[in-house]
Amino acid sequence: MAQEIEIIGIADLFEPPSPARDHADTRIMAAASGIGFMAVRDFPGDHWLTPDRRAQLLRIFALSEAEKQKLLRWNFDPTRKNVYRGWFPLQPTAVSYKEGIDIGPDIIGPDIMGPDIADAGGVSTSDDPLREPTPLPAEDALPGWRAAAADYYRSMESVGNALMRSIARGLGLPETIFDACFDDGISTLRLIRYPLRDANAGVDTSGPEFSVIHKGETRTIIGREHADSGFVTLLAQDGVEGLQAKNLAGEWIDVPPANGTLAVNFGQLLERWTGGRVRATRHRVIAPKTVRLSIPFFYEPRVDAEIAPLPLKGAEPFEPFLYGDYLWEAATNFVEMSGIKHLRQPRRAKAS
Ligand SMILES: O=C(O)CCC(=O)C(=O)O
Ligand SMILES: [Fe+2]
């Protein structure tokens, strides 16, 4: 049983069928159904995986506090209309000690989510918060940032799409089986900064939920243990350690950052969809010695995608559900989304 995180070259996933592509599919499915983590490299858009290129996106953390506050969402500033996309500030008493922004598909074109969302000027005109536009920094505050974020978003969509088809093939299903669900998907590009905890901030972090022993050293937790909720997550770490994954033996192993690779893990949606064939591996972040920056991309279906059991032998059946309903329930349990669950009702009543 593989206990190490494999590095897999995925160039062949972007080419016509070949034995090399079959081999990559096999390795990906082994990682997905084994440890539930892998690292991938060699794909169109991999030029983004250098410190200089990532810095173009991470410039957002250099904005002034006043500029960041303009991007806040409703649960942190009740004068804002956006509830799902936008800035989440540091919450010093929470186990997860991070700030950042969640960016939706409107970054790649205001029309991407239909006319109800176009030109909303930061005000949600959609009746679904999962489709609201992202409040973005002004162009003159960060020249070129929007174009860089859009290009990055497009690159990650294309990697997510290639992995989605590879997983379909790896399950022995038609490679297009998931395609319709990902048309107009609502993937999230998240930029995160974890500063060093200020020992004088008056927050008691001595409790067991805040710290662990790692290689004989006490390390504070800055990203609470969780499994991601979506389909697949593509994570660019910015050269700083701290990410850990729980392996099949229940031990925490380091997921080291490496330039030119994305760490990939699989989400709970995919675990459920595949009746447990793919594993949504739990992970966490322990405090490194310096500030940590990271860029997860959550590859996700469309809001109204119907998630129904796949024709897989022996897989546990389940009641079909709408992705948006599932996502809202899952996402609003995270601390950066606290206090918003009541703002969206399920679009489909649950069968009783
Ligand atoms: O900081 C990291 O690298 C992990 C982030 C993460 O797990 C998440 O945002 O879901
Ligand atoms: Fe995560």
Describe the structure.
The chain has seven helices and 15 strands. With 352 residues, it is of the alpha+beta class. The chain has a single domain, classed as B-lactam Antibiotic, Isopenicillin N Synthase, Chain (Jelly Rolls, Sandwich). An eight-stranded mixed β-sheet has the order 1-2-11-8-13-5-4-3. It has a five-stranded antiparallel β-sheet with strand order 6-7-12-9-10, with no helix packed on it. Helix 1 (19-33) packs across helix 4 (145-170). It binds 2-oxoglutaric acid and fe (ii) ion. Pfam families: 2OG-FeII_Oxy (PF03171). It is an enzyme of class 1 (oxidoreductase). Its EC number is 1.13.12.19, 1.14.20.7. Residues 185-301 form the Fe2OG dioxygenase domain.
Keywords:
single chain; 352 residues; alpha+beta; Jelly Rolls; eight-stranded mixed β-sheet; five-stranded antiparallel β-sheet; 15 strands; 21% helix; binds 2-oxoglutaric acid; binds fe (ii) ion
Annotate the secondary structure layout.
Elements lengths: L6 E3 L9 H15 L3 E5 L9 H8 L6 H5 L16 E3 L10 E5 L41 H26 L8 H4 L5 E7 L16 E4 L2 E10 L5 E6 L5 E4 L5 E3 L7 E5 L1 H6 L9 E4 L5 E8 L6 E2 L13 E2 H9 L21
Parallel strand pairs: 1-2
Antiparallel strand pairs: 2-11, 3-4, 4-5, 5-13, 6-7, 7-12, 8-11, 8-13, 9-10, 9-12, 14-15
The structure holds 2-oxoglutaric acid and fe (ii) ion (FE2).
EC number: 1.13.12.19, 1.14.20.7
Catalytic activity: 2-oxoglutarate + O2 + 2 H(+) = ethene + 3 CO2 + H2O; L-arginine + 2-oxoglutarate + O2 = guanidine + L-glutamate 5-semialdehyde + succinate + CO2
Pathway: Alkene biosynthesis; ethylene biosynthesis via 2-oxoglutarate
